[in-house]
Automatic annotation (TrEMBL):
Pfam families per the UniProt record, alphabetical: P2X_receptor (PF00864)
Gene name of the record: P2RX1
Organism: Salmo trutta
Stored Gene3D superfamilies: atp-gated p2x4 ion channel, atp-gated p2x4 ion channel domain
Protein name, UniProt field: P2X purinoceptor
Membrane protein topology class: Multi-pass membrane protein
Record lineage: Eukaryota, Metazoa, Chordata, Craniata, Vertebrata
Keyword annotations from UniProtKB, A to Z: ATP-binding, Cell membrane, Disulfide bond, Glycoprotein, Ion channel, Ion transport, Ligand-gated ion channel, Membrane, Nucleotide-binding, Receptor, Transmembrane, Transmembrane helix, Transport
Amino acid sequence: MHASGMERPSCLPRSSKMNSYIANALSDFFFKYETPRQVLVRNRRVGVVCRLIQLGVLAYIIGWVFIYEKGYQSTDTAVSSVFTKMKGVAYTKVDGEEWVWDTVDYVFPEQGDSSFVVMTNYIITKGQKMGKCPELAESRYLCNSDSDCERGMVERTGHGHMTGKCVGNTTKTCEVVAWCPVEDDRKIPDPALLMSAENYTLFIKNSVTFPAYGVKRSNLVEGIDNQYIKSCVYDPTTSPLCPIFRLGDLVQLSGFNFATIAKMGGAIGIVIDWTCNLDYDQSECKPIYTFHGLYGNPNETDMARASVGYNFRYAKHYMEDKQEKRTLLKVFGIRFDIIVRSVARKFDIIPTLTAIGSGVGIFGVATVVCDLILLYLLPKREFYNNMKFKVTETVEQCDNLRLGINTFIYYIPDVYAGPRVSANIILQHKEPLDEFSSEK
């Protein structure tokens, strides 16, 4: 025994020590199991905090992850197609001239796309031909002499190419090369000329496919046959699956006033929502229609805004007396955009295990919070610190023995410092040790 009171450890050659270490490490890896040490703490406040946190985590996992977010299911979005067809006839009588409008006249484009415009009002300019004529009698086009009309100049909001002449008798305006007579769109018909568009009907045919699950659905679901379609009109309460919509109802459901939007034009979005839970029968996968006013003039009082409503121009060209002429229409209408929104869900073991694993990991938050309370906030934190952390003594000797130096390094823990080492006591004996001394 040494003066320190400890038995001198035996020291093997370096190669033997390395082989023994490797063998022990392999043996420990394959044949031993390590489990964390747990300390049972009887403290009401900490116990209540722990259970409250665990209860909150459990509510989050069950309520949010599994019930609301459907964390046990995988998802897929649909490949979709939309076909539309308008029906209805309008009658107008302007300046004694009668006109009947059908779908070829008031729907743009005619192909039945998912985005189209229904004309509700218009300004018509007939018999235009290419030539020279005065501009409109507006302040921006007025002139007193030819010098006020710059030859070759084109006004951004004008109708043609200036000739450099100032023409007219009472109100003089610059002469332009344009389609004459130029369009006068300063007075919009009120009420709208095609108010009967309120009774047009829109037929929507929509098909969706969820490729991940091999499911194909159509908005013509079970129970909707030819006989039903001939008589039904969509109603959110009585006929929520009917694919035929009255335009007046669409405008009202979007929050707009038909008379106002018909005069100036606007845009309405029709959303077809396919949110399907394929854990149930496919027949339960049905569309839900919603309607949104995108832009227009629904308040009827906000006339100070720029570019209110929706309009565009188109012309019908024809030949008369070997001269090309055209009829120009400035069209005010309602633009409909059909938007398909889809998501299908179905049980999948991989997201289920992922959700459970992440939830179990979140339970560790309770342990971390309670440890912080025990080790740093409670009055007996030093006692809990010593109970949680166990510090062992370490002796390093063999390398110094080979040098002929009897050295012991003791790491003595400070009970008030927890796992940290607070003091190192080093005792060195420089006299040669008997069993390693070359001299007896």
